[in-house]
Design a protein that fits this description.
By secondary structure, the chain is an alpha/beta fold. It has nine helices and six strands. Strand 1, helix 1 and strand 2 form a beta-alpha-beta unit.
């Protein structure tokens, strides 16, 4: 059975789920609704109005961490988590750090301010918040990661959920001009480059490029024109709503 994911390819949380599905070799389709455009049926499936949502037969799940844990437990093959309680606990923590701290900094502090507010709401960015992220908060987070990431390879051997979760947020930061200073944070810069060079990530970034080069309302058609197979739209609206979050 083909799995269905509801959510934008450009969301770091959707990207995380799709990369994990690619690693596990699962068949899936994506209904690429843009955050803030979910309809009432979407609200029923995702009461917090967050993406991604996973539909697997009668099973409907929201929240990327819940979805990735389900995929690893429900489907065999490639393991997304390392062996052993200590490594698994550390992997969960780093995923949580990514989703919570990097999400706050790079999504709400940079990507939302500099891209979403302009494209969706026709508003100006909160430049005070952007400046604080760039000058104080992001450097502190990068200092932490520089001490946690390995000098070579990935966190626990093969590419896994924690590696993908951490890296995913830097993609959105790049979309609004943020790059990691490789001289100041060499481990972080090397790690991100290696993860993004992986075939599963390169494939998804190619699809994202199609979305990023199209208008908000024209993204679905742009994907179809590029040969991306999409399900019939069921969960989106023509006008955005406040309160839909990408998580």
């Amino acid at each position: 059975m083909t799995l269905t994911v509801i959510g934008s390819f450009v969301s770091p949380y959707v990207r995380k789920v799709l990369a994990c599905m690619e690693l596990k070799g699962l068949d899936y389709e994506v209904d690429p609704i843009t955050p803030f455009f979910g309809n009432d049926e979407f609200t029923r499936m995702s009461p917090l109005r967050r993406i991604p949502v996973l539909i697997d037969g009668e099973t409907v799940l929201s929240d990327s961490t819940v979805i990735c844990a389900y995929l690893d437990e429900a489907y065999g093959g490639y393991a997304l988590m390392p062996d052993g309680p200590r490594d698994r606990a550390r992997a969960r923590w780093l995923e949580e750090f990514a989703d919570t701290r990097l999400g706050d900094l790079f999504i709400w502090g940079l990507f939302y301010q500099k891209f979403v507010r302009r494209m969706v709401w026709q508003e100006e960015a909160d430049m005070d918040r952007v400046t604080k992220v760039l000058e104080e908060d992001a450097p502190a987070a990068l200092d932490y990661l520089e001490g946690e990431l390995p000098g070579e390879g990935y966190l626990f051997g093969p590419l896994g959920l924690a590696d993908i979760a951490l890296t995913s947020f830097f993609v959105n930061a790049r979309y609004v001009g943020f790059e990691v200073d490789a001289k100041r944070w060499p481990r972080v810069a090397r790690f991100i480059a290696d993860v993004l060079a992986e075939p599963v990530m390169a494939k998804l970034l190619g699809i994202e490029a199609i979305q990023m080069n199209a208008s908000i309302t024209g993204r679905r058609q742009a994907l179809i024109d590029a040969g991306v197979k999409l399900p019939e739209p069921r969960w989106g609206e023509r006008e955005p709503r406040r309160g839909v979050m990408a998580l």
